[in-house]
Amino acid sequence: MEVKAEFLNVTVSRGSGDGVYQEAFQVPAYDNQTVLDVVSWIQQNVDPTLTYRFACRVGMCGSCAMMVNGQPRWTCRTHVKKVSTNQKLKIEPLRNLPVIKDLVADMDPFFGKWVEAEGVHHPTRTRYEPIEQIDPQDAARTTANEGIECINCAVCYAACDTVTNNADYLGPAALQRAWTVYNDVKDADKSAILDAVSGKGGCHSCHSIGSCTHYCPNELNPMQAIAGLKRATSKSFFKKGR
Amino acid sequence: MKRPARTHPLWLAYILHRLSGLILALFLPVHFYVLSQAITNPALLDGFLKFAEIPVVKVAEYGLVFLLAVHMFGGLRLMALEWLPWTAPQKTLAAGAVGAAFFLSTIFFLQAV
Amino acid sequence: MDIRLYMAQRLSALVMAPLVLGHIAVMIYAVQSGITTAEILGRTQGSILWFLFYGTFVLAVSVHAAVGVRVILNEWLGIKGNTLNLLSWAIGIGLLLLGGRAVLAVTFL
Amino acid sequence: MFTVKDIERHDTDILILGTGGAGLFAALHAQQSAPEGTKITIAVKGLIGKCGCTRMVQGGYNVALGGGDTVERHFMDTINGGKWLPNQDMAWRLCKEAVVRIRELENEIGCFFDRNSDGTLHQKAFAGQTADRTVHKGDLTGIEIINRLMEQVLSRPIEKLQEHRAIGLIPTKDGKALSGVLMIDMRTGKFRFVRAKTVLMATGGGPTMYKYHTPSGDKTMDGLAMALRVGLPLRDMEMVQFHPTGLLAGEHTRMTGTVLEEGLRGAGGQLINHNGARFMFDYDAKGERATRDVVSRGIYAEMRKNNNPEQVGVFISMAHLGPDNVRKKFSGMVKRCADSGFDLAAGKVEVVPTAHYFMGGVVVDVDTRTALEGLYVAGEDAGGAHGSNRLGGNGVANSTVYGGIAGDTMASDLRSMLTLREPDEAVLESELERAIHPLIKQPALVLPLRKQLQEVMWEDVGVMRTQTGMKRALKNIAEISQNLMEVGVSNDNLAFNLTWHDWLNMRSLCDISQVIAEAGIARENSRGAHFREDFPEPGELIDSYFTVAKQSGKDIEVTREPVEFTIVKPGETILPDHEPETLVAAQ
Ligand SMILES: Cc1cc2nc3c(=O)[nH]c(=O)nc-3n(C[C@H](O)[C@H](O)[C@H](O)COP(=O)(O)OP(=O)(O)OC[C@H]3O[C@@H](n4cnc5c(N)ncnc54)[C@H](O)[C@@H]3O)c2cc1C
Ligand code: HEM
Ligand code: SF4
Ligand code: F3S
Ligand code: FES
């Protein structure tokens, strides 16, 4: 009933390392079809060995991101209609990360940098103390809130040319997290954060290319967060001379 | 190859800034060399300045000043973005910078011819 | 790029901004009357102000371009470590020497 | 092909399966309280923190934090919500420890929950609660909780085995204790046996054997199927919670079944049947605002009345609240619907009840210990805390509270466990053979069988059940199960072979589906999520029993055990006399 006599011409990147090749598939087109559905259809119906990753299927877990027609996308929430012109789709693993197999990228470097950027809470209180009262309208709090809904999908990481060009660069998501923690009034070690983002691959490597912000599926603004870090580190540079 | 579309204004601003900086950096030694001829070989410098009257060279010169202006405003835009608390109409700033650069270098160009 | 390089690049850029504006203004004014070596030298020769003006520019631009090109060398050509350091210093010092000679040429020598 | 010799052997002290709220909390607590030098390993079917359902929590976290609300009140709501079936000691510990856990989440882990304008935590009420109790971060509470936990775990010296799927619990030769866990390293397709002194199973249940379901794709009842095979008792296995409003977007899309949040109905969203009429008031005086089970049954009944194949579900309509208003208040939901092509703000969206949460699970004590020495179970895999119905907001409280307890318990039990235990090699071998079974069969598609199973469960063991239906289901499940054993998976390339894992998923789902149907037949009354059309009455509360299912030979044996009212008896309350029935202002 929903099936139209139409097909999508899908090219999928297969393999890993030196053995990467492209394979073409014809996939029936449906209404309400997402890119993840297209990939799933191939695996479930024609090529059982096709590998991809997903979990939540509703844009919460950030594990399904791939390159779709050259652009980084969360595939579970990307409608085919939104990205395909003339029924053509080209699907590849996320850019800027090692490929494990087919459409699955190794996200370890991404999370390694997340921790390296001190994107981790430094407690001021323990579980035996009451929860801190914090004015939700407070300026720092509002700033922290802006980046808090990141689902670590690495779409921004894949979009950024600086990440491609500079292996040390921590990347937009990790830096945005660092900025969020930095603005958290509950955080005890702001100078550790500034130190972490002031090194070789820190926030200063960002050229404000803005692809991160452009592609973030959650409409977050890592570019702005990184600018915040540049500002904060500059201030502390003048104050402390380092 | 995996290559995200980069057709958004900020990416263009970035590549323009980078290329203009690079070309300026390549041109600068030449510029310095020519100027230092002022002592050792004034005729050469004069010759160069004459040479600079040729329209093609004029356009190239115009290009360099244009690049300098583009790069400078691009750079100022970046620093404003980084150091001043961020305001939303970012893209307007980028466009404005390029516009101003055009304006300046056009004046220069018109003055020159 | 770490914070030291970053600050060097931004601060030198800030120093250059008014100088570049000034320079362009002078050039606009100058080309109107048609530039000659004599004309340039007439303006600048023996002037400590012009020496400081261009001297500062040369100093700033050496730092600025060295850092700038360093980043590009690293990102686009993948040059790293000592080679990168060496190249950056070479660019900076090279520009400083060339530029210094040019400034001296038009002002004092 | 594979023999026991090909299994890579690996040792650790504490092994944790799963990285939902339970798994991650266990890792942190174990790391904090275990003796110096203890090796902690976390193994998970997906990536750390990026799979499972804790991340998908929208509404929030139930915890009594004063302002009139008390642990006693939270406890009474939990018991009433669970229709007097919960294990009261577990429910009590859940409510009591949640208070500590929420402070830990905020103060130590770094979560930030929404505040009132005076800076205190904002709390709201889910259906079935008598106080504003649910702490939240917008409607993305789970992302906040799991991201913060994940960062903490990633930044600690904990061994990580990502994309490692547990496939069998391997006991010692005498069967009294657990030796370790057999897994598949999904990326390479190789087998790995990890011995550990203590193992926490926190694989999060996951009723994904239903045509419509909400949990993440990695959850397929693996844990419960493994527990069943080592002979552990499973309780309340008939209790499958349906969320009334799952998105219906067609069979070919994974979006179908995903949940449209409860807040929509709370805010005044209307449910419309195929005749274009509101119907919920025909079923309950609270209309759309009735509890999940009631609304699910209302929708299901309407769906049955309708025989238009073009329209399967009912519609949720928000437009009368003002599209702009809806867009603002439910921006996440509106965007999500728009992505799949629906206009929630101004149009109407087709919905169906969708399998959401599994109340049943392994029988454990209040410290998460099981009958098998060395094995601990927490989170959605553990049964008892919720009885026949889980209150919205009690799910994540349960996984984080008991995950933490499991971490502490394992760390302290470990002190008296001096050596690793030797596995029963025969079990190891049979578990291996079970996993490679499809690799020697003629390759065929797995998906059609999954669809069949989902259809069977939805039709006959779903929102409303009868003995005839469930008997029929058992027959069908057995047939699907048998057919599955004839479906092969090509063994050319086992590295990250999703189809092999689809097959293994189906194996777990078939096994547990059978248990659900058997337990459903054994409960001859209607409580909470379990509704028998042939036994619509709840039965005497004082005679409440829970079901316990166990593998015995090839069969499933279900017994009934009386609920022990250790804290409060039906008809009584532990609230002080003068306490009002509810503190929530009528909506
Ligand atoms: C859409 C949705 C919304 C919800 N909203 C709420 C809410 O608002 N409030 C609330 O209290 N509760 C809510 N819940 C319920 C809540 O999410 C769960 O009760 C709770 O998070 C379960 O936690 P867990 O740690 O037991 O399991 P999960 O968080 O599901 O984690 C299970 C983990 O085990 C892993 N795993 C599974 N199988 C294997 C295997 N074979 N080997 C290795 N690892 C394995 C999984 O990959 C995953 O990492 C919601 C659930 C869903 C689906
Ligand atoms: C007034 C003048 C100038 C200003 C305000 C300015 C500003 C800047 C800024 C802010 C950057 C950093 C860009 C980034 O990190 O993305 C930069 C980069 C650079 N600048 Fe300049 N600059 C000026 C003049 C010059 C001149 C005269 C030269 C050349 C000789 C030059 C060469 C470069 C180069 C090569 C780069 C590196 C580009 C990159 O990394 O993408 N700049 N400039
Ligand atoms: S900032 Fe946006 S794009 Fe980047 S990881 Fe977070 S959610 Fe994804
Ligand atoms: S795209 Fe990259 S360079 Fe900076 S602004 Fe974003 S991180
Ligand atoms: S599958 Fe979770 S974000 Fe797409």
TrEMBL record, chain A:
Record-listed E.C. numbers: 1.3.5.1
Matching InterPro entries: 2Fe-2S_ferredoxin-like_sf, 2Fe-2S_ferredoxin-type, 2Fe2S_fd_BS, Beta-grasp_dom_sf, Helical_ferredxn, SDH/FRD_Iron-Sulfur, Succ_DH/fum_Rdtase_Fe-S, Succ_DH/fum_Rdtase_N
Entry keyword 4Fe-4S: yes
Domain 2Fe-2S ferredoxin-type positions: 8-97
Taxonomy, superkingdom: Bacteria
Cofactor(s) the record lists: [4Fe-4S] cluster; [3Fe-4S] cluster; [2Fe-2S] cluster
Coiled-coil regions, chain positions: none
Stored PROSITE patterns: 2FE2S_FER_1, 2FE2S_FER_2
One GO BP: respiratory electron transport chain
Pathway(s) of this molecule: Carbohydrate metabolism; tricarboxylic acid cycle; fumarate from succinate (bacterial route): step 1/1
Cleaved signal peptide residues: none
Keywords, ordered alphabetically: 4Fe-4S, Iron, Iron-sulfur, Metal-binding, Oxidoreductase
Top EC class of this enzyme: oxidoreductase
GO molecular function, one term: 4 iron, 4 sulfur cluster binding
Subunit comment: Part of an enzyme complex containing four subunits: a flavoprotein, an iron-sulfur, cytochrome b-556, and a hydrophobic anchor protein.
Similarity comment text for this entry: Belongs to the succinate dehydrogenase/fumarate reductase iron-sulfur protein family.
Protein name, as recorded: Succinate dehydrogenase iron-sulfur subunit
Automatic annotation (TrEMBL), chain B:
Keyword RNA-binding: no
Keyword vocabulary terms for this entry: Heme, Iron, Membrane, Metal-binding, Transmembrane, Transmembrane helix
One GO cellular component term: membrane
GO molecular function: metal ion binding
Cofactor entry: heme
Subcellular locations according to the entry: Membrane
UniProt keyword annotation of Membrane present: yes
Transmembrane regions listed in the UniProt entry: 21-39, 59-80, 92-112
Job description of the protein: Membrane-anchoring subunit of succinate dehydrogenase (SDH).
Protein's recorded name: Succinate dehydrogenase
Natural source organism: Ahrensia marina
TrEMBL record, chain C:
Cofactors named for this entry: heme
Species classification: Bacteria, Pseudomonadati, Pseudomonadota, Alphaproteobacteria, Hyphomicrobiales
InterPro entries recorded: SQR/QFR_C/D (IPR034804), SuccDH_FuR_B_TM-su (IPR000701)
Signal peptide residue numbers: none
One cellular-component annotation, GO: membrane
Key word DNA-binding present: no
Its biological purpose: Membrane-anchoring subunit of succinate dehydrogenase (SDH).
Pfam families per record: Sdh_cyt (PF01127)
Designated name of the protein: Succinate dehydrogenase
The species this protein was found in: Ahrensia marina
TM annotation in the entry: 12-31, 51-73, 85-108
SUPFAM superfamilies (UniProt xref): Fumarate reductase respiratory complex transmembrane subunits
Compartment(s): Membrane
UniProt keyword Transport, yes or no: no
GO molecular function, one term: metal ion binding
Entry keywords, A to Z: Heme, Iron, Membrane, Metal-binding, Transmembrane, Transmembrane helix
UniProtKB/TrEMBL annotation, chain D:
Keyword Flavoprotein part of the UniProt annotation: yes
InterPro entries with a match to the protein in the record: FAD-dep_OxRdtase_2_FAD-bd, FAD/NAD-bd_sf, Fum_R/Succ_DH_flav-like_C_sf, Fum_Rdtase/Succ_DH_flav-like_C, SdhA/FrdA/AprA, Succ_DH/fumarate_Rdtase_cat_sf
Keywords tagged on the record: Flavoprotein, Oxidoreductase
The Fumarate reductase/succinate dehydrogenase flavoprotein-like C-terminal domain, residue ranges: 450-572
Location of the active site: 292 (proton acceptor)
A GO molecular function held by the record: oxidoreductase activity
Oxidoreductase in keyword set: yes
Protein name: Fumarate reductase
Organism annotation: Ahrensia marina
